[in-house]
Design goal:
single chain; 236 residues; alpha/beta; 19% strand
């Protein structure tokens, strides 16, 4: 399958509400938004549940805007058509943003899977390194529903949080037994504990690497998720 895309000047953004909250913690945070699930013709969220696909964050905030979705689709075609060039472009942006953060007296973080679930730790640049290895002073953050990503050694500067859905309770319980954190969506309020673990407020910021170990990152339902009663959103 051939994918056509227009030249892309900027891949990363930092305009989402929660990412902007990072300013309070003296971080410059950026995020990569691609076209979610199968909207590009290729599934880039391999373990997306039916409800997850339906209530994806493209249904909330700026993700609802047609111009935003078109830009995300174009970036996805860019990635699918020429991954080496895309990664080189992304690496260049990360380096520029890191230097910009330093000049402003800030630390820099980047989330590569804003509306996707791709194993960026496996994608290599021309020098044989992945983005994390090629940018050791940058903190990378992501959520994932792919349990197998935790089976392999992750780069030290890549913080990965497992994301619970309506169909992966058993996998969630397996992750709960490990050192990794789990993110769970709740309807109106956060419980003190979930599946035996302490729940923290994950909506305060998106700096998941600052979270305590072995906790549940509680998120309040947003967008279409507010109307889900199929198990994706938890009632307490």
């Amino acid at each position: 399958m051939k994918f056509k895309y227009k030249p892309q000047k900027k891949l990363l953004g930092s305009s989402t509400y929660k990412m902007a909250k990072s300013d309070k913690f003296k971080y410059l945070s950026e995020i990569l938004h691609l076209a979610s699930y199968t909207s590009s013709g290729v599934n880039i969220c391999a373990k997306a549940s039916p409800v997850c696909a339906k209530v994806c964050l493209i249904s909330s905030g700026r993700g609802q805007m047609n111009s935003v979705n078109k830009a995300r689709l174009n970036k996805t075609y860019y990635f699918l058509a020429n991954r080496p060039k895309f990664l080189k472009h992304l690496d260049h942006e990360i380096k520029l943003s890191y230097e910009r953060a330093k000049r402003q007296g800030l630390k820099y973080t980047v989330r590569l899977n804003g509306t996707s679930d791709l194993p960026f730790e496996r994608y290599k640049l021309d020098n044989g390194l992945n983005l994390m290895e090629n940018n050791p002073n940058v903190q990378f953050i992501d959520y994932t529903k792919i349990k197998n990503r935790f089976k392999y050694k992750l780069p030290k500067n890549y913080n990965l949080t497992f994301s619970q859905s309506e169909i992966n309770l058993n996998e969630t319980k397996e992750i709960i037994k490990s050192k990794y954190n789990v993110a769970t969506v709740f309807r109106n309020k956060l419980p003190k504990k979930w599946l035996g673990r302490k729940v923290i407020n994950g909506d305060k910021h998106d700096l998941r690497h600052l979270d305590p170990k072995k906790v549940v990152v509680g998120l309040i339902a947003k967008g279409k998720a507010k109307k889900d009663f199929n198990g994706f959103v938890q009632d307490v």
